[in-house]
Structure formats: C-alpha cells, structure tokens
Write a structure and sequence with these properties.
heterodimer; A: mainly alpha; elongated; B: Alpha-Beta Plaits; 6-stranded mixed beta sheet; 4-stranded antiparallel beta sheet; 32% helix; globular; binds adenosine-5'-triphosphate; binds magnesium ion; transport (chain A); antibiotic resistance (chain A); transmembrane helix (chain A); ABC_2_transport (chain A); ABC2_TM (chain A)
Chain lengths: 257, 310
C-alpha cells in the first residue's frame, strides 16, 4: 500500500510557460498534419492547382508570366487555407467537443493557447511555402523582391484571416463553421485574385475584390515577388484593417462553449 | 491531511438566462475526504462544480476553493486542481488517448508517469485510437486519467463511473480510495448511491439548486426515523396510503414494484401499511423494517417520485 499511496501524492505545479507553449504548439501541429481533410485543404489543393494551371493554359494571366502570376496567388491560397479555413474548422470543433472548456481548467493560460494556435499556423505555413515555392522553382519560377516584405505580408495576412476564422468558430455551430469556412475559401479562391486576375472582373467590383483579405494578400505578394516592389503599404493597410476588425469582433462575440 | 475546508460555497446563485440552476447553495467540502455530491438530474451539481472549477462565474455568492477565488486566482488555482467533465467531455477528437495524456502531462511541473497511469487505469487500448472513436467508457477513463496526471491536491470528478462496466467501476473505486489515501481531496458527483455509500466520507445532497443535506453518511442516516420496505405490483396508487400515514411520512416507489415508507416506524404504522395492502390486494413480499439507508434519505429529501413534492 505504501507504493500506491505514494503514487498519487499531490505535487501540483504548472510547467514554465515557454514549455507549455512549445508542447501545445507541437501537439496542435501534429494533430493538424495528421488530419486528412485538413491536409487536402492546406497542401493537396494548392499544389494540385499550381501544377495544373501551370501546364494547362486555361487562364489569361495578363501582364504577368504564368508562374509569376500563379505562384504568389497559390501562396496566398495556402495562407488562407491554414490561417482561415483550417483554423476556423479546427477551433469550431474544439469548441463543440468542449476542448476549449477543458483546456481552461489546465495550467495553460488562455493567452498561451492563442499564441500556440498562431505558432501552429505559422509552422504549417512555413511547410506550405516550402512546398509551393519548391514546386514553383522546379517548374521554373524565379521570384524577385525582398524576403522580409514577403514575410511581413504573410504575417499580416495570417492575422487578418485568423481574426475572421476565430470570429466564425466562436459564434457559429461547428457544422455551420465547416460549411461557411469552405464556402468562403471557395469564393475567395475564385474572386480573390488567386487564380483569376482581378482585371478580368467588371471595373465596378474590382476595388471590392481588392479589399478582401485574399485580394490584398495575393496582389501584395505578386507585386513583391513578380514586380520586385517594396512592401505594398496599401495591401498591408487593408490586411491590418481586417486583422483589427476580426480580432475585435472575435474578442467581443467569441463564446467558449 | 489538514482538517480545513477544501471547498467552501456560500449562497451561490447561478442562472442560465432567467432560470436559476443553482439557487442560494451553501456547502463545505472537508479537505482530504472523498465527498459525494448527490442530486437528481438537473439539480445543479454540474453547474456548482463548474463554478468551483472557475469555468462559470457565479451570479452571486462566494466560492472558495483551496482558499482561493476560482475566478480571480485562476492562474494559481488551476495547477492544483484536476477536472473531469461529465461524460468525459473536452478532448481533441483527433488525439489518441495516451497521446493526450502525455500532452497534458507536459503542462505540469511534476506530472505522474504516463506509462504507469496507463497501466493502472488499463488504458492501453486507447493508445492507437482517436478520442472520437473510443467507446464512451474508454473515453471516460482517459478523462479520469487526465484529471489525475498533473498530481492535483483536489479533483472534481463529474460522474466518473457512469456507463462503466462493473469491473471498470470497481477499478475506478480502487483508484479513488488510493487518491484519498494519498491525501487528495476528491469531489465526486454521482447518481450511484452504492458508490457514495462505499467511498464517501462526506455527502452533500443537492435538490433544485440548493443543498438539502450534508454530513457523513452516518450523520445523514442517524435519526430515529426508520423505513419499511416491501414489494408489490409496480405502479400502485400510493395516494390513499399517504393519507392513512402520519403527516411526515414519505412513500416512494424506489424501483418498479419496490416501495419504501420512511417515517418513525411504530407498530401502528406497520398495521396501517399492512391493512392498506390488504385493502388493495397487495401481498407485501419481503416486508422489512430497517434503519434509514442513504438511499432512503436521498429519496425523502429529493422526492424522486412525482407528486410527492420535496
Ligand atoms: N449550459 C446551459 N445552458 C442552459 N441551461 C443549463 C445549462 N447547463 C445546465 N442547465 C440547466 O441547469 C440546471 C442544472 O443543470 P446541471 O447540469 O447543473 O444539473 P446536474 O445536477 O449536473 O444534472 P445531471 O445529474 O443530469 O448531470 C438544469 O435544469 C439544466 O437544464
Ligand atoms: Mg451533471
């Protein structure tokens, strides 16, 4: 009985916050990379689209060469798929299964949970950028522009999408989030300047499409990677605006249960 | 083991919308005990312990857990408290059982050894299966392990044995006894009176959002009241029997065909019962006069039968 008594002897204490952050990020990344449907969204669709559209001339890429147009667009798609669609769906189901409620009783602070989710998104995006960029390079894509500007755009773009993802996950039912997040993904894929140049659309709607997070991110990435411009401030401003609005709304309306 | 209170609740009120789920409840849970929280469905047990876990903010009243305020001192309190939600809820659907325990262990400074815990709670079969595909009982046992892995000094377990097979239920009972032996305070919501009778040092009965009894099982069952138990046809109309008995008597069909009369039993009462049986053509098989059991107290206080009130 002595050994068994010793087994449950209390020894409470939280791990250091950095260790919780690393553990939570590693755990969530592992779950995400194991999830078939999520991988379809974040890896298979972008890579397939890039490969297909690079070979089959179904779209007129206007002033840009095919790859100069496509690769930045697909990078924007990759960012959107992870930081919006996948984040919203995963968070929606975590909320529905009571994961968020259960986690709230562990030593992991809520802020650390949010940071871990952000880090998870960034880790997956790094893998996506490597995959998409690598495929592009293999097909002959030669980007220009500043790496820092690209990173900045991806980070602001991620924040813009993540705010909206959290808003959706925290207010809708999980099934509704699943449907809506996929719908928005599809709409922005077609209308967000990702695979179809925005100047193919009527003049009246172009500014509207340009002001979507996808439009701003795709266009911004293109102007850096294809045109070699510096950081496109108007795009950054649009994305930052979405980020602020999205997180403010999520903070206001997100329900944990 | 200190003798202070692990949980102290004073006039707790918690409403969902306008409807109070907990309505002026006060209770004390002594440190180092197994305390059973009993009450009918919807009585407010889960709501009460969720206020203790810091998950719900009380509308009014005070809640002190290990001397701390679960809302204000959440950061300090959470590492010290283990939680198992009702039905073992709250897990990443895609995570495997053991993987989840290993992860939760990493959030704590000196967690239990996961391999040992897995062996002790027989969780080996959850190593390869995602949580969403585990059986209800398997999921619940992972949830119990998850409540323990951080080596808490206080655990809140919401119906940990509901839906477990008899062998697993026993194994969980053994674990709970071990926890107490190690000095952990266990708060155990349950519907199984047998579980409370076996394990609990302290019992709290909740009804309609209020505490209607608390004390050791011996304290709750010791009064000069006793019971008469008998079997007959199921669903007898008990109204006329109630009318014939003294005012303070309670009559319940505790399970189909089993009737319990709780009152101060004297020969007169016994005669009333048997003549009522005769008048209703009931052969009162297994008629037995006995000391009040915890179940009798529970039924008396919570009026589990419709029409008897509380
Ligand atoms: N999230 C909620 N929203 C609205 N009402 C709720 C919610 N949770 C519980 N209630 C209501 O509050 C009351 C108390 O519920 P609670 O879950 O605390 O009961 P309980 O004693 O745990 O019951 P059980 O034995 O069935 O688990 C019930 O009437 C229930 O319908
Ligand atoms: Mg309950």
């Amino acid at each position: 009985m002595t050994t068994t008594e010793r087994r449950y002897r209390p020894a409470p204490g939280a791990a250091p916050v950095w260790r919780m952050l690393v553990a939570q990020t590693a755990f969530e990344t592992r779950l995400l990379l194991r999830h078939g449907e999520q991988l379809l969204l974040t890896a298979v669709i972008p890579v397939t689209l890039l490969a297909l559209l690079a070979f089959v001339p179904v779209i007129d890429t206007g002033a840009y060469s095919r790859l100069d147009f496509l690769v930045p667009g697909i990078l924007a798609l990759a960012v959107m798929s992870t930081s919006f669609t996948s984040l919203a769906i995963a968070t929606g189901y975590e909320r529905r299964y009571g994961v968020l409620k259960r986690l709230a009783t562990t030593p992991l602070p809520r802020s650390a949970l949010l940071i871990a989710k952000a880090l998870t998104v960034l880790v997956v995006e790094a893998l996506q950028v490597t995959l998409v960029g690598g495929l592009g390079a293999a097909l002959g894509w030669r980007p220009t522009g500043s790496v820092l500007a690209v990173l900045a755009l991806i980070v602001v773009g991620t924040l813009a999408f993540a705010g909206l993802g959290f808003l959706m996950a925290g207010t809708l039912r999980a099934e509704a989030t699943l449907a809506a997040a996929n719908l928005v993904y599809l709409l922005l894929l077609v209308l967000g300047g990702i695979i179809i140049p925005l100047d193919e659309f009527p003049d009246g709607v172009q500014p509207v499409l340009m002001a979507t997070p996808a439009g701003a991110l795709a266009d911004g990435l293109r102007s850096v990677l294809a045109d070699g411009s510096g950081l496109p401030w108007s795009g950054v401003a649009i994305l930052a605006g979405w980020a602020v609005a999205g997180f403010a709304a999520a903070a206001r309306w997100f329900r944990w249960e | 083991m200190s003798t202070s209170a692990a949980v102290e609740i004073e006039s707790l009120v918690k409403c969902y919308g306008r409807v109070p789920a907990v309505d002026g409840l006060s209770l004390t849970i002594p440190s180092g005990t197994i305390t059973s929280v009993l009450g009918p469905n919807g009585a407010g047990k889960t709501t009460t312990i969720e206020c203790c876990e810091g998950y719900r903010r009380p509308d009014s009243g005070t809640v002190r857990v290990l001397g701390l305020d679960p809302q204000r001192d959440a950061r300090r309190l959470r590492p010290r408290v283990g939680v198992m939600l009702q039905e073992g809820a709250g897990f990443y659907p895609g995570a495997r059982g053991v993987e989840l325990l290993s992860h939760l262990a990493r959030l704590h400074a000196t967690p239990l050894d996961v391999a040992t815990l897995v062996e002790q709670l027989e969780l080996g079969d959850t190593a390869r299966t995602p949580m969403r595909r585990l059986s209800g009982g398997q999921r619940q046992r992972v949830a119990l392990a998850a409540a323990l892995v951080g080596r808490p000094e206080l655990v809140f377990l919401d119906e940990p044995t509901a839906g477990l097979d008899p062998r697993m239920r026993r194994s969980v009972w053994d674990t709970l006894s071990e926890l107490r032996a190690a000095g952990v305070t266990v708060v155990l919501c349950t519907h199984l009176i047998e579980e409370a009778e076996r394990l609990a040092d302290h019992v709290v009965i909740i009804h309609d959002g209020q505490q209607v009894a608390q004390g050791s099982p011996a304290e709750l069952t010791e009064d000069d009241e006793s019971t008469v138990r008998f079997n007959g046809r199921p669903r007898l109309d008990l109204a006329s029997l109630r009318d014939a008995l003294p005012e303070d008597a309670s009559v319940q069909e505790v399970s189909p065909g089993t009737y319990v009369v709780a009152t101060t039993v004297d020969p007169g009462v016994l005669a009333t019962i048997t003549s009522w049986c005769a008048a209703h053509d009931v052969m009162p098989e297994g008629l037995q006069v006995g000391r009040t059991s915890l179940e009798d107290v529970f039924i008396k206080l919570t009026g589990a039968e419709p029409g008897t009130g509380s």
